[in-house]
Amino acid sequence: MLQGPDHLTGSRIRERRLALGVKQGALAADVGVSPSYLNLIEHNHRRIGGKLLLELARALEVDASTLTEGVDAGISELLDAAARAMGDVPAETSRIDELVARFPGWTALIAAQEARARHLEGQIDALRDRLAHDPALAEAMHEVLSSVAAIRTTADILVKEADLDPAWRGRFHRNLHEDAERLSARATGLLAQFEAPGAGAEVSAPEETVEAMFEAEDHYFAEIETAGEAGYENAISTVLARHAGMVEGPARGRAEARLRAMARDAKRLPMAEFAPLAKGLDYDPARILDAIGGDVALILRRMASLPSDETVPPRGLAICDASGAMLHRRRVQGFALPRVAAGCPLWPLYRVMGRVGQPDMAVIETPRGARFKAWTVAQPVADQSGARSGGGARFGSLPRIEATMLVMPTTAAKESVEVIPAGPGCGTCPREGCPARR
């Protein structure tokens, strides 16, 4: 039998014939073939094309493309759903092609549910990450609990001290009222961390607002790339003006700092020169470094900022400081990057902090078996003027160090570099017995 999603035309012909209530012999006679040959076609034992395909499409009252296309997209989603299936009942992956061919509607439904499940899992991970590590949430919760404790103490005094002086009783009632108002305001502020008033819009932390802006532009800002040194500030203002939440406040400040860093990168390594070079070297950071040398972290950041087209591979980027806090990220499907908390302690992103300036390359294997090649380096970061932090010859000065990791999917079964079985972070990683688990 012919295998794979490219050879399901026969199954679709059979399903269409049965849906119309046409006998196999009648259809064979209509298109001028024997019933036995049509039976071989319908069971995917014979390839079909050309005039016979057109005749079958005419007889079955469908377009020929309906019989030959539209299956490949369903196969990958079903395989993803099968890989993520819970329980002890194994999925019948060997019959996925039959399911796709016979029940395209159910296939689309399962694929949509799989996409929805991935989206919801991402939201849950983000919320768990914020609840555990977001300092703004921790502070808001502390204020709420402090107000609750104050109200409870005051109420306890009023209940148990029946002979309080009227002046003192009035003072305690006033304190109770003020603490209750403070609790209401703090609880409202805490709620605002998760939901916005009206229309169900989300209220985001400054980091999330900035990240949403970068994701909306696919981490490529044409104005900044083409502005030239004299026009960077105007370009940055233009970018900020077209995104919500960038009028003022912490989000705008962080976005400006990040865009200025991108402008410095554009000045040092213009995209007009870098993009054709990267394409000519198959988007391999190691080969690019061999060709042009220089700043490794700069090359990794420019790789993440390449304008996407059909030739540019998917890529993710993670930048953290010496504490492990995530400063910047570009997400890539299949590789979870936490918003606030540290990621997996086995990531090369963290181990290069012990060898500043020494590039590292490894393959990270996720708990689901997907593999990503990772290029990583830790370096002193540039200050606002573009000078290297700690670059001055002053004893006792401590440079700020940041680690940068670029990840890209790899399908090679065997790699010539180290393979690291890692996860998204200990809070959500399903790996048992990991020596680095905390």
Automatic annotation (TrEMBL):
<feature type="domain" description="HTH cro/C1-type">
    <location>
        <begin position="13"/>
        <end position="67"/>
    </location>
</feature>
<dbReference type="InterPro" id="IPR001387">
    <property type="entry name" value="Cro/C1-type_HTH"/>
</dbReference>
<dbReference type="Pfam" id="PF01381">
    <property type="entry name" value="HTH_3"/>
</dbReference>
<protein>
    <submittedName>
        <fullName>DUF2083 domain-containing protein</fullName>
    </submittedName>
</protein>
<dbReference type="Pfam" id="PF09856">
    <property type="entry name" value="ScfRs"/>
</dbReference>
<dbReference type="InterPro" id="IPR018653">
    <property type="entry name" value="ScfR_C"/>
</dbReference>
